[in-house]
Amino acid sequence: MTEWFTETLHPWLAQRLRIDRVLFRDKTEHQDLIIFENERFGRVLTLDGVVQTTEGDEFVYHEMMAHVPIVAHGAARRVLIVGGGDGGMAREVLKHRAVEKVTMVEIDRGVVDMSVEHLPSLSAGAFDDPRLDLVIADGAKFVAETDERFDVIIVDSTDPIGPGEVLFTAAFYADCKRCLTAGGIVVTQNGVPSLQGSEVTNSWNRLGQSFADVWFYVAAVPTYQGGFMTLGWASDDPAKRRHDVATVEARFAPLGIATRYYTPAIHQACFALPKFVIDLLK
Ligand code: SAM
Predict the structure, then answer these.
(1) Catalytic residue at 156?
(2) How far apart are the C-alpha atoms of 94 and 151, rounded to whole Å?
(3) One-letter-per-residue 3-state SS of 82-151
């Protein structure tokens, strides 16, 4: 009997992926975690009925959330990842040899352990990198209490439901600002605007309470259903998101980082938003 994974994110729309083999299915301390194989997308990780990442398209999301802010910053040495339990984000960030320390604050140990065991291609050894400091904790509590300061903060969270809800609040964004160095950048997983428009409007207003320059950039991840997704951008330095292609090229080319989605031209273009997304900024 063919088994299907049916996503439960939207009451009026649901994507299905065929389950060819279940590798793990159980409750963790915080969430329902399933890791299964699918003929087209490879190994797939879902949490609480929602696709989080697949081997087939994770490169889009991880490259765009790592390289856009780090290349735009130009001198990032300390990076904070909030969430990102599968390890894919840490993998991309650690490709930047000038980054001296990556702190990853993930609430769910089960996601990390099962990703290392069943999805090793995502982290690709990142958890063994001496520059990585893995902290199992609530990201909101961490940014409210830490004495550390970061040049770039990447919020690689679930949707604003369950443990991820607090990562979309004005208080969390204000605490991110508190532990950011001058001219630092925060980027956030911010949903698919055609289906989750209120997430864009909420983040626009809540980030705007703490940062001088707030915007969004886009990337299309096939298993994040509904067209391209939005990634939130916040900084006090408006120039950081206005680099021309030549500047991005001059910074990125010498790094020798191989990518499958990110390019200097994509970096510059991804900040161009369609009208219906701009209309959500109210
Ligand atoms: N790319 C995915 C997406 O766009 O939906 C996110 C992937 S990543 C697996 C999301 C991670 O955020 C999960 O491992 C989850 O446990 C973690 N997370 C959720 N709420 C959190 C919190 N309050 N603090 C830290 N990590 C959290």
Answers:
(1) yes
(2) 14
(3) EECCCCHHHHHHCCCCCCCEEEEEECCHHHHHHHHHHCHHHHCCHHHCCCEEEEECCHHHHHHHCCCCEE
Q: Whose Cα sits closest to atom 14 in ligand 1? A: 85
Tell me how far apart the alpha carbons of residues 31 and 47 are, in angstroms, rounded to a whole number. Answer: 6
Cβ(54) – ligand 1 distance below 6 Å: no
- Cβ–ligand 1 contact at 48 (below 6 Å): no
Q: Which pLDDT belongs to residue 188?
A: 98
pLDDT at position 62: 98
Q: Decide whether any atom of ligand 1 lies within 6 Å of the 189 Cβ.
A: yes
pLDDT along the chain (282 residues), means of 10: 96 97 98 98 98 98 98 98 98 98 98 98 98 98 98 98 97 98 98 98 98 98 97 97 98 98 98 98 96
Query: DSSP string covering 27-39, please?
Result: E-SSSEEEEEEET
Q: What is the pLDDT of residue 216?
A: 98
Q: Which residues have a Cβ under 8 Å from the Cβ of 207 and sit 6 or more positions away?
A: 173, 186, 188, 214, 232, 234
What's the confidence (pLDDT) of residue 87?
98
Per DSSP, what are the bridge partners of residue 150?
A: 180
Ligand 1 midpoint to CA 108 (Å): 8
Q: Locate tokens 């990518």: which residue?
A: 259
Q: Is the CB of 110 under 6 A from ligand 1?
A: no
Closest CA to 227 of 160, 279, 277: 277
| Catalytic, out of 48, 57, 151, 156 | 156
Rg (alpha carbons) of the chain, rounded to whole number:
18
pLDDT score for 139? 98
Our mutation pick for probing the ligand 1 site, out of 29, 32, 107, counting the most ligand atoms within 8 A of Cβ, is 107
Give Cα 148 to chain centroid, integer Å.
21
pTM, two decimals, is 0.98
